[in-house]
Amino acid sequence: MTLKAKFLKKSLIVASVSLGLLVAPIYAENTSAEKPSLEKHAAKALADSNYQLPKLAGAELAPNQKFRDTGQLVAWLLMQSHYQHPNFDNKLSRESFKQLIKMLDPNRSYFLASDVKKFEVFKQKFDDAIRTGNIELAYDFFELFERRHRERYKYVLSLMEKPFDFTKNEEFQFDRRKSDWFENKAQLDDYWRKKAKYDALNLKLADQDDEKIKEKLTKRYRNNIRRLSQTTNEDVFGFFINAINASIDPHTTYYTPRQFEDFTINMSLKLQGIGAVLTQEDEFTKVVRIVNKGPAYKSGQLHKNDKIIGVGQGDNGEIVDVIGWRNSDVVDLIRGEAGSVVRLQVIPHTSAGDAVSKTVRIVREEIKLEDQAAKSDILEVQQGDKKIKYGVIELPSFYAESPNRENKNKQLTSTTKDVKRLITKLEKQDINGLIIDLRNNGGGSLSEAVDMTGLFIDKGPVVQGKDFQGNVRILRDNDGKTFYKGPLAVLVNAGSASASEIFAGAIQDYGRGIVIGENTFGKGTVQGIRELSRFMRNPEGNMGALKLTVEKFYRVTGNSTQKMGVKPDISFPSFYDLETYGEASYDNALDWDTIETTSFASAGSIEQLLPHLKQSHIERSNKDKQFSYLIDDVHRVKAEKERKSISLNYKTRLAERLKNEEKSLERANLRRMAQGKPAFKNIEELEQYAKDKEVQNQNLAGIDFEGDILLFEAANILGDLIELKTNPDLAKVTKQSKGKVN
Asked: N or C: which terminus of the chain carries fewer CB neighbours within 10 A?
């Protein structure tokens, strides 16, 4: 049940519908005027070093019987076992067409409006194609896309002979996802000219000279052409079938045999690599998720939505430009033996898309279950004239080690066992309360979420599940014991999903503790894996696998977490919102709904205490400059979300970068002064400190609390709750806050 936000939905930007007899007419309109001009300008850029364009893949690709059979089997499984019981009709076909266009050209930068209009004749052919096995339309469509793709990159290669003028005040519209399609080739050429200039400016801001810029971009654009020419029959089928899956729900995915092999490795948690989930978006390899406690996480230098543009082996190996490479090939470069070094050239994600690339050094490790294990520490917070001790348990995921031949006599690791052991350890240190930190916990084992909830309640239902047949099951804690009876807070954010939402929701519904933070992600569905070869009597080789949605889960109140998530009792400022980043942002996400409330015995209610707790939190945060800066940053980032373009003027971009660095230094020094430490002299000193801190954190047994103002404030709120429960009359009068973050 782990969060797999759009993991394979944006694989490679190829896949299509059939154009059949329309191929010739579409290209006929360009042959007289466009092609000679394009060839003339591109000739010099393409001819040096004996460079030759690779053969077009699409002309030779065609489905075989294996893919026809696989498509029919997937359609049958979806109709029989998917939660929605989808009908393979014209409505599904139209949505599949939409999803395929979106995967193919998400930024609307390859096709013209006239192309898309001509595609529409195939809108209602998808359902028939998959059910009958006549899937040639996917391969015809890919062939056209490859030609359009090649035209674009031949054009930008023709621009490499002359340096760009970065003194002009031009803007590049980097986000065209909701823009109209271009009407003519002149508009398309202007966009791609600016895109090439944008790529060049990013390199210039990284102190590359004109010759180096030309060399890198020429190599990059050629790689884009080459990588697409390596597309296989299996790839095209995968794109086509996943467009159909995306029309049903965002978590239903077909894994090609190669992808299923990768999925199996990842699920074993014994992959030797860096601990990051990657996908392909446009020509970039993008980070989808960082595995908690893996090498990338420990480095602190790689984050969600960062783009990997180069990979180097060891400390001295040449960094290979991987822009335009297939995702699987980039993954192969990054994987390697535990203990070896890989260097990644990365463009960090920013809302404005103006980051400068950097090189990240990571030591590969074997990513084991233990690396995902819970850890604990003591957090001391000054409240009034006392220092209060809180136990903090940081939980990256809900894990459970499965028994096998190798560990059948071993005490198996599980979330519940580890948390129970850590609580015992913390209670021996006389903690006043406990904070369970579920930030960025994407889920995991459903049974572990239930069992862990049982540590904090006597007994009763924890979560309800409804399957595709409408059957409701109730998962319960039945031991009749409360292992931890003390004050409890659960800290969540927008990255808390699935099993995390089950636990947080149950704690909230039972009134057992207070939930603090951001609204959670909103994934209230369960997926199952079907290995397709097992359904065939004589399968023609490995057929891959289908991950499909089979169940929705509900809180004990009957409310679904789907799309809505868990709303905290006290909210913190958030850079994210459900409509943009949560489950609700996905096309065709299942709807929120309710079922009947199940009988459960509440441990109490904090509802009447919330107004006082919120007021105390507001008063405290108003006095705290760090909190004030956080709120300012949230407002600024949200305002920038509407920004779809960026300057192509060097001085303007450089000034923006220096301003951002100045702001980062100011924020960091504020924290330093609050801790009684000397301020950083400049941005270089801050960056060096961050690097040294990353190395220290790799071997840190406990939890690094430094700079975590939200965790400190969660402790203050829990302290207020403890005080109110000791003296409920305090809630009736206005109280000046005694909490202070230190």
From this structure: C
For residue 558 the two structure tokens come to 């009957």
Please report, for residues 107, 169, 588, 644, the alpha-carbon distance to residue 179 in angstroms, rounded to integers and kept in the order given. Answer: 8, 22, 21, 10
Residue tagged active-site, from 397, 498, 616, 621? 498
At 87-109, the pLDDT tens digits run 999 999 999 999 999 988 999 99
How would you class 48 by CB atoms within 10 Å of its CB: exposed for 0-12, middle for 13-18, buried for 19 or more?
exposed
Residue 17 domain-assigned (yes or no): no
Let me know if residue 739 belongs to a domain: no
Asked whether residue 27 is assigned to any structural domain, the reply reads: no
211 and 302 assigned to the same domain: no
Rounded Cα distance, 368 and 265, in Å: 11
Instruction: Give the CA-trace dihedral at 404, 262, 526, 127, to 10 degrees.
Output: -130
Helices (H), 256-363: 257-268, 295-299, 327-334
User: Is the pLDDT confidence value at 323 over 90?
Assistant: no
Tokens of 252: 């239903």
- Can you read off the two tokens belonging to residue 671? 């924290």
Q: Which residue among the candidates 6, 9, 10, 523 is catalytic per the annotation? A: 523
**Encoded tokens for 525:** 């569905």
Q: What are phi and psi of 539, to 5 degrees?
A: -65, 145
Closest to 489 in 3D by CA, of 739, 711, 703, 727: 711
Whether 244 has a pLDDT exceeding 90, the answer reads yes
Buried b (16+ CB within 10 A) or exposed e, 190-200: ebbbbbbbbbb
> Is 363 in the same domain as 376?
no
Instruction: Give the domain range for residue 709.
Output: 370-732
Chain segment 209-226, per-residue pLDDT in tens: 999 999 999 999 998 898
- Helix (H) / strand (E) containing 465: strand 460-467
Q: pLDDT tens digits for 557-573?
A: 999 999 999 999 999 99
More confident call, 411 vs 142? 142
Q: Are 713 and 437 in contact (CB under 8 A)?
A: no
Active site residue 498: yes
Residues 324 and 424 grouped into a single domain: no
* 151 and 126 in a common domain: yes
In the set 189, 371, 509, 720, the catalytic residue is 509
- The pLDDT value recorded for residue 638 is 78
Does 179 qualify as catalytic in the annotation?
no
Q: State pLDDT tens for residues 144-197.
A: 899 999 999 999 999 999 999 999 999 999 999 999 999 999 999 999 999 999
- 81 flagged as catalytic: no
**Most confident segment among 72-76, 271-275, 338-342:** 72-76
Q: 112 with 212, same domain?
A: yes
At position 192, the amino acid (one-letter code) is: W
Predicted confidence at residue 265, as pLDDT, reads: 55
